[in-house]
Design brief:
Residues 16-258 form the NAD-dependent epimerase/dehydratase domain. The protein has helices spanning 24-35, 75-81, 86-89, 111-130, 143-150, 165-181, 207-217, 235-248, 265-275, 302-308, 316-329, and strands at residues 15-19, 39-44, 62-66, 93-97, 135-139, 188-194, 196-198, 221-223, 229-230, 232-234, 254-257, 263-264, 282-284. It is an alpha/beta fold and 337 residues long.
Length: 337
């Protein structure tokens, strides 16, 4: 953890600047701020006409700027063209850096591409400083925790494999780069990691969502023993936590957004099976598990709760019930209040 001050820094956010705003978490974060009548400057790679309207729609307080991470240094020019200056940004603007690109998916093992993300994170911090933002909230990944346990292994004897390793190590590199920069910055740095995030409009092929789809199709379910600890958080709790961190988080803190109820993965699968019965065969232990195991404490949101008072409101049965509704009917149930 970075050296942390005990001084309270609670203040309403005047404007949120969000990279990766067309992504799963970024779009819900954008909608949360707009729901609370907070100005948002959203950055995304796609031209506006190509953005999924379910993820982002026009709003009087939304300014959307299409650009790549490599173009972040050009943002002041775009803001000037949009008529957004210091007055519009306000005295408590917060920069949320969620963008993370890849050529063929986050697990494509593209080292050069992932290192480009590290440079883009550095540029985001410099941009936040230049714009006079109060703080930069850098978003990490749960895979960083696996990487910290994975890299020290003796691979002559440890038969493990983690396809996310290059992506996660680049995330760790970005974290260390920003921490090295922060002593010379006026803009405060806060780093956030989170447990597995679930909710509607998530098109990623994650384990829980993929399992749900297989249940719906009546396909056989073959798993590892699923004894490793896991944790799930609703996307609505996640973005609410990010908003609260922007308002109340301690400068230089490193937070984990978690449910506070991490449990073996098998328990999550069994809850799915209880809620959505299947006649297809279910086999735990049919596949071998070839990755490190995380201690339950890794998923602890204790520091976040202590500093901000945040706790999750949606439990796993409700999360999966609403995911089921979206997958079956396309109906999106939201929790933005």
């Amino acid at each position: 953890m970075l050296n942390q001050t005990s001084t309270s820094h609670s203040a309403p956010i005047s404007c949120a600047l969000i990279t990766g705003a067309t992504g799963f978490i970024g779009s819900w974060l954008t909608k949360l701020f707009l729901h609370h009548n907070i100005r948002v400057v959203a950055f995304g790679r796609k031209p506006w006409e190509q953005v999924d309207p379910q993820r982002l729609a026009a709003h009087k307080l939304l300014t959307y700027i299409p650009l790549s991470q490599e173009q972040l240094s050009s943002v002041p020019k775009y803001l000037e063209a949009a008529g957004i200056g210091a007055v519009q940004l306000g005295s408590n603007a917060v920069f949320y850096n969620l963008a993370w690109g890849s050529s063929g998916g986050l697990s494509d093992l593209d080292v050069a591409g992932q290192m480009g993300n590290v440079l883009a994170s550095q540029q985001a911090f410099l941009l936040a400083e230049a714009l006079g933002c109060k703080r930069l909230v850098q978003i990490g990944t749960m895979e960083e925790a696996f990487t910290e346990a994975y890299l020290p292994l003796d691979f002559h004897h440890a038969p493990y494999y983690n396809r996310h390793i290059i992506y996660a190590e680049a995330k760790r590199c970005a974290r260390m780069t920003l921490k090295a920069m922060c002593s010379s910055m006026h803009c405060e740095l806060i780093i956030v990691n989170q447990s597995h995030i679930m909710g509607p409009l998530d098109h990623r092929d994650s384990f829980i969502t993929a399992t749900m789809k297989r249940i719906l199709k009546g396909e056989p379910l073959r798993f590892t023993p699923c004894e490793q600890y896991f944790d799930v958080v609703s996307v609505f709790d996640c973005v609410r936590a990010l908003k609260i961190i922007g308002e109340r988080g301690q400068p230089q803190a490193e937070y984990w957004i978690g449910s506070g109820h991490a449990r073996p993965l098998k328990e999550y699968v069994n809850i799915l099976l209880q809620l959505h019965a299947t006649a297809a065969p279910v086999e735990f232990g049919a596949l071998s598990y070839q990755d490190v195991r995380l201690d339950k404490s890794v998923f602890s949101p204790e520091l976040l709760q202590r500093d901000t008072g945040f706790t999750c409101e949606l439990d796993f049965p409700q999360i999966t019930a609403e995911l089921y509704t979206w997958l079956q009917t396309g109906q999106v149930i939201t929790h933005l209040d």
